[in-house]
Amino acid sequence: MGHTYEFARPALAVDVVVFGLDEEDLQVMLIQRDLPPFDGQWALPGGFVRVEETLDDAARRELVEETGLRDIYLEQLYTFGAVERDPRERVVTVAYYALVNLEGHDVRASTDARNAAWFPLSDLPELAFDHQEILEVAYERLRGKVRYQPIGFELLPDRFTLRQLQHLYEVILDRELDKRNFRKKVLAMEIVRETKDIEKDVAHRAARLYRFDKRTYDRLTRQGFNFEI
Amino acid sequence: MGHTYEFARPALAVDVVVFGLDEEDLQVMLIQRDLPPFDGQWALPGGFVRVEETLDDAARRELVEETGLRDIYLEQLYTFGAVERDPRERVVTVAYYALVNLEGHDVRASTDARNAAWFPLSDLPELAFDHQEILEVAYERLRGKVRYQPIGFELLPDRFTLRQLQHLYEVILDRELDKRNFRKKVLAMEIVRETKDIEKDVAHRAARLYRFDKRTYDRLTRQGFNFEI
DNA sequence: TGACTTAGTGTCTATACGACACTATTATAG
DNA sequence: CTATAATAGTGTCGTATAGACACTAAGTCA
């Protein structure tokens, strides 16, 4: 039993570039394939789109199935349609990128993710298909977007220090920022709000914890405010 | 004789939002459908992707077939995958936007474009499918992009006056700009180069014609220059 | 209690942006 | 041929913003 169409159709897939951040690096979630083609090689999580689900739904479903990650920030990136990008047959893939903070979501704890793992962006294995290219486009987009929209907060835990926030920008933009200027700018925007707590278990003076102020962010966004860092 | 697959597949289409500019308005190219669904209604040019062509190729092919426009600036926009966006069956569409100068490309002169026409963005007919939404996303993108990347030159003839260029920005950004500040900024960027000619057949002092300097633009782009207007 | 580590803070200078108005040139109408 | 109308083309100044720059405060740990 199959499905028959008058004209040949490309298969339609989704792939997701999941970025995470630890103390050191920007990381990417990859899964190890256990089927041909590219058996054993690392690849982006993803899979075929079902006829009764939206593209976003397909991306979220595949993420849960393959990595255990759910309820994370997800945005459509670009659609890749080179004719020979899959050796089996014509497959067009809608690529997404996702941001997740490593503290909140433990991949190893998820059920069916034996072969999912984080890799630092600076030291990636060879990837299947054109996933290297997709990843580069995603990183490019993340860099471009973070400069004028504070999406980076998705990479941090709920409460964070300004040092962590600065580190995030430094890792994504790949350059050092001046501490005083950075704090001036971020605090002037009023999109982070001081909490009454400070960080714990650090071997030096503890820093104040801040929280992302989504309410103010939404208001400023409606006013066309420029969040450039 | 048909094509049979194990799982049901969404159909894959491309649609193109073609922007053009005249002395007054930003315009959009639409075609009048002559088949159900939405028979007789206006829609974006587009059609189904063939298995042996890339997405870009499909978009260009449909543009030529339906509007006669060829060799124009084209960029992928977003992929729309709502489940019920086509009443016949599941169709996912990769949307593109294109920029074209109205002087160089006469639509009426093209062969098979009896039912293609320009409409001012401010006075559009009701559109088929979710094309209204696609168009809004495209306009949003154009506005966002033109502010920090000089793609707008595609909307102008080869040689243009600074007045025309300013008009272009005013129409796209939907606000008035100061003539002196605008000229200062554009000339400082050195992405337009003075020609030795001036415009003709105008009932007042003729303005100098300029040309877009792609070479300098490419060099500045590589240096990460910010083209914000 | 001293040494180490990071938190947290302010000033000054250079540059960029935006507000603002007049003269120059050409075509055309009377 | 002269007046009028229309747009071309040009510079200054005040203000806001960005970036360079260095020290004190607080807490941990040996």
Description of the molecule:
The structure is a homodimer of 229-residue chains. By secondary structure, chain A is α+β, with helices and mostly antiparallel strands. Chain A has two domains: 11-145, Nucleoside Triphosphate Pyrophosphohydrolase; 159-222, Winged helix-like DNA-binding domain superfamily/Winged helix DNA-binding domain (Arc Repressor Mutant, subunit A, Orthogonal Bundle), CATH 1.10.10. Chain A is 27% helix and 28% strand. Chain A has five helices and eleven strands; from the N terminus they run E-E-E-E-E-H-E-E-E-H-E-H-H-E-E-H. The longest helix of chain A is centred in the middle third of the chain and has 16 residues, at 131-146. The interface between A and B is medium-sized, with 29 and 29 residues. Chain A binds a DNA duplex (30 and 30 nucleotides) through residues 161-163, 178-181, 183-185, 202-208.
